[in-house]
């Protein structure tokens, strides 16, 4: 083994313990807990011999010089922010593995031709501003003024929060990289699904990332006294929300096929008004997301659902408004990178298969800069975004070793 499995696991364990005191494995972007993790990561990057900086997009970057600095860099990394109660390995495995590769290359006396950049991308998970992949959007020049003006519950704008983590919303051009500005980007991640575990495989070669569309759906009814208002006279916004939630579930169940999976989730309910036990709900906002490699199905899913429910909403005296919060098209992984990952796994005697990712990743944006690929490792019961998220040290060790050898091969072919 060229990489140090014990050091990898020790760092993973340490970073995972930097969590909000009342929630397990929680490091929400832009919070003091996140900054605590960032501080520790920066120290680890420095101890590993990397030159550390934070770009104006809020990305933490550790650089290792290659023999030929005129070549575009190879990027490795992932994210250190988490969803609530679900970030024990999601993201941080990729950041810590990238760090391990960079440190092991030096310890093994291996200098790449390309410069190597280890990156902790800012806010990959959907943030309190409703936006995900904030740092990788900035890298790809896709963080615009409308996004920077988005606010969270306390009124802070994303631009203001970006400053708070070392970025600069007025200088985003400094973080922006152009097409073909990188030799390639490789991310190691837990699968967050069951394929590898079910088939007892070591490695997943990711073929691409599904399209993801997030829509804010506002349902407006009328507040009334809960005791005095007859059922037939009500315009109950939460009844409408319930029809939407169930309707989205049934429509996705019907639309999804083994060859073309489609998923739809309403995972966040916001701004219920008046939100009182004895008042008929007048207003509610839902965040509906749809994902599939079928772009057309993703693009029309929400509108089709609203059209289908229109007669019921009219009967309930409800109005419905939709606003697309984000839409990221399906992102294929580069064939060259996929091929090198597969060849490396084979050469190391590790079992593998190719598979798509229904989960979103920073590669959706970094792929605009150059060839992108991902290595998956199994996780327990395929579960993620939950405190039960887990993988065995041996599984992490195989992933980082395949990543290490893949990077050395990519250095020769990219
Ligand atoms: O939402 C996702 O798929 C990823 O975990 N950010
Ligand atoms: Mn995640
Ligand atoms: Mn992730």
CATH architecture of the largest domain: 3-Layer(aba) Sandwich
User: For the residues shown, what is the average pLDDT?
Assistant: 97
Percent strand equals 15-25%
CATH homologous superfamily heading of the largest domain? Zn peptidases
Bound molecules: (2S)-amino(hydroxy)ethanoic acid, manganese (II) ion
Structural class: alpha/beta
Number of helices: 12
**Nearest-angstrom radius of gyration?**
22 Å
Spatial separation of the terminal alpha carbons: 24 Å
Helix/strand order:
HHEEEHEHHHEHEEHEEHEEHEHEH
According to CATH, the fold-level topology of the largest domain is Aminopeptidase
Number of E strands: 13
Sheet with the most strands, sense and barrel status: 9 strands, mixed
Percent of residues in helical segments? 25-40%
> In total, how many domains does the architecture comprise?
2
What oligomeric arrangement do these chains adopt?
Answer: single chain
């Amino acid at each position: 083994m060229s990489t140090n499995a014990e050091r990898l696991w020790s760092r993973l364990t340490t970073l995972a313990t930097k969590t909000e005191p009342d929630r397990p494995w929680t490091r929400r972007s832009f919070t003091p807990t996140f900054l605590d993790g960032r501080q520790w990561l920066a120290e680890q990057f420095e101890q590993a011999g990397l030159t550390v900086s934070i770009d104006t997009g809020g990305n933490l970057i550790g650089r290792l010089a290659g023999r030929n600095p005129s070549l575009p860099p190879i990027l490795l990394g992932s994210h250190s922010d988490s969803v609530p109660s679900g970030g024990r390995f999601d993201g941080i495995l990729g950041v810590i593995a990238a760090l391990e590769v960079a440190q092991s290359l030096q310890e093994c006396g291996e200098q790449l031709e390309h410069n190597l950049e280890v990156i902790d991308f800012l806010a990959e998970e959907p943030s309190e501003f409703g936006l995900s992949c904030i740092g990788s959007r900035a890298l790809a020049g896709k963080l615009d003024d409308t996004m920077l003006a988005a606010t969270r519950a306390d009124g802070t704008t994303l631009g203001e929060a970006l400053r708070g983590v070392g970025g600069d919303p007025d200088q985003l051009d400094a973080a922006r990289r152009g097409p073909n500005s990188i030799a390639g980007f490789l991310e190691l991640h837990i699968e967050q699904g069951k394929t590898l575990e079910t088939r007892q495989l070591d490695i997943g070669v990711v073929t691409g990332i599904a399209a993801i569309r997030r829509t804010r759906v506002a349902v407006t009814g009328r507040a009334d006294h809960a005791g005095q208002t007859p059922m037939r006279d009500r315009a109950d916004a939460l009844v409408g929300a319930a029809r939407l939630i169930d309707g989205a579930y049934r429509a996705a169940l019907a639309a999804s096929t083994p060859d073309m999976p489609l998923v739809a989730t309403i995972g966040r309910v916001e701004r219920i008004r008046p939100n009182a036990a004895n008042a008929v709900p007048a207003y509610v906002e839902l965040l509906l997301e749809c994902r599939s490699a079928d772009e057309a199905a993703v693009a029309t899913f929400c509108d089709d659902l609203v059209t289908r429910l229109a007669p019921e909403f009219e009967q309930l005296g409800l109005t419905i408004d939709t606003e697309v919060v984000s839409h990221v098209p399906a992102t294929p992984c580069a064939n060259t990178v996929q091929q090198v990952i597969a060849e490396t796994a084979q050469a190391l005697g590790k079992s593998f298969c190719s598979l798509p990712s229904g989960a979103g990743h920073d590669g959706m944006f970094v792929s605009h800069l150059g060839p992108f690929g991902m290595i998956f490792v199994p996780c327990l019961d395929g579960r993620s975004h939950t405190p039960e998220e887990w993988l065995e040290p041996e599984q992490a060790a195989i992933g980082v070793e395949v990543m290490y050898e893949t990077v050395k091969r990519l250095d020769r072919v990219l």
